[in-house]
Amino acid sequence: MKNRATPLQIFKFLDKTNCKLCGKESCLEFATDVLERNIALKKCEHLQFPEQQMNYHQIRKLLLPPQKEVIFGTGTRKCKIGGEEVLYRHQRTFYNPTAIAVEISDNISDWKEFEKKIQYLTDLSIIRIGEKLTLDALAIRYTSQIPENYIKVVELVFKISNLPVILCCLDPSIVEGILEHFHAHRPLIYAANSQNADTFAKISRKYDVPLACFAPDLSSLVNLISSLEKFGVTDIVIDPGTFFTSGGKFFTLNRIQEIRYNIFENHHSLMGYPLMGVPAVLWSQNQTNISSVEELSAGFNLTPEIQKIFEDQSQASTSLWKKQYEEVLMGILLQTIDSNLIISHVGQNAEEIWGLMALMTYRQNIFTDPRVYPRVDPGLTIINSPSEWSPVYVTSNYRMTKIPVEQDLIDANLDGYLVVVDTEGIGIESATAGGQFNEEQIKKTLDKHNIFNKIRHRIIIIPGMAARLKAPLEDLAKCEVWVGPRDSSSIPSFIQEKWKIDEIKAKYSQT
To answer: Cβ(192)–Cβ(213) under 8 Å?
Structure first.
């Protein structure tokens, strides 16, 4: 792995005035945050001075990752791919999650329905664990073989959608005709090959847009990249091929891993670009059968219900859902090995939302920073419309705990107060064992938000995994502590059984 720059190496090229114009307290703090990509280098105003240009370029050189970051699209939804520093996430972290694009064809029979489809894909969002999951790009395929059709579709997409676009067309003249009018949208050209590389390289340079390239074998790919670089193309995306033929799946994954190993371990600068996979090619290769699905499913625990579907299905090779499943599973595997961009066929309409949900939620799970506990801000969360007789729940600020608890309460239409204790982003069980979730912290949070001034009872519900805090919390906070269920999905039934409002009113109205 390439030796990473240190904050002191960057600090050496700063003017060390600690001017704070960047928002940081010192130049050393700025150097540290620049290295961790928490602040842009251009935020240092002093580096913009003419006499500081040499230092600016020296720092940029130090910050260059082994894999170049490529950006296509513009505005708030511009798509960043690549730019990684390590082969495996646990070595440091991955910075840019796999971008997910959905392909659309220019074979349009109903233009109104097509507009609805584009709007649907543009607006598509799923809220999961407090994070908004969206699509990253649209890949427009030239399948009609009618240039006017393709140009009209691209023009319509740019008019309706702010999603970045991938122009999937091997005809340079058509692509250049589009870029003459729409190069400001900075689409990604797909793809240069041995026949059109020179022409596409000139177009990429002329309009300053990124260019993907494809070759059937590794040596041809290296030669193709070398040729593009000689033409001055700097933003390149590599497609090593995605294959579903017999043995092709593992060949695909192994080749991508081989290239990534050359980038991050062998420092092969010629290969140092983002990598893409195209699970959507399954539909053109038309290679699918039940054995291939089982081959891809190796290592995954299929439920008995899914296994039964495999066994019961006849005509497996022509089964629509099986092809969709195979494509989505390939997309998941490509994300697992940190492919930087994937293009999916499944997901074009609302009926296929399950495919995009699988891809986006898996991506969310994979691309988290292993150095940082996923946390939310501690504090008080109001659930629905609580009254002075509503329950008070206590949880940690571990993101995967707080958000599901909140969502389960909202979905069950329960009113209440959710007290979120600062456990340094650690879950209930571990934080209870480690001491971050304790009676002192809970009481401190209760007092900070004056919870007992908001309610007329003194009942606090703690998670089942923190049951041992019941007695000490009751002594310290002078309240009644109920031990709730271990899983937040059981809270609704717990409240229905335990929260007898008339009894609680009778008990606490007298005190």
So the answer is: yes
Buried b (16+ CB within 10 A) or exposed e, 337-357: bbbbbbbbbbbbeeebeebbe
Crossing angle of helices 111-123 and 147-160, rounded to 10°: 40
In the chain, how many domains are there? 3
Instruction: Give the model confidence (pLDDT) of 377-398 as tens digits.
Output: 999 999 999 999 999 999 999 9
Q: Cβ of 267: how many Cβ atoms within 10 Å? A: 12
pLDDT digits (tens, 9 = 90+) for 147-176: 999 999 999 999 999 999 999 999 999 999
- Answer yes or no: is 105 within a domain: yes
Q: Are 214 and 193 in contact (CB under 8 A)?
A: yes
Q: Are 90 and 370 in contact (CB under 8 A)?
A: yes
C-beta neighbour count of 29 within 10 angstroms: 17
The residue segments making up the domain with residue 113 are 69-83+90-366
Q: Are residues 50 and 73 in the same domain?
A: no
Using CA atoms, how far residue 363 sits from 98, 257, 279, in Å, is 7, 18, 15
Check residue 97 and report its DSSP letter.
P
Question: The domain spanning residue 37 has which CATH number?
Answer: 1.10.15.40
Please, are residues 244 and 288 in contact by the beta-carbon 8 Å criterion?
Answer: yes
For residue 275, what is the DSSP state? Answer: B
* Full-model pTM: 0.82
CA 485, 488, 490, 495 torsion: positive or negative? positive
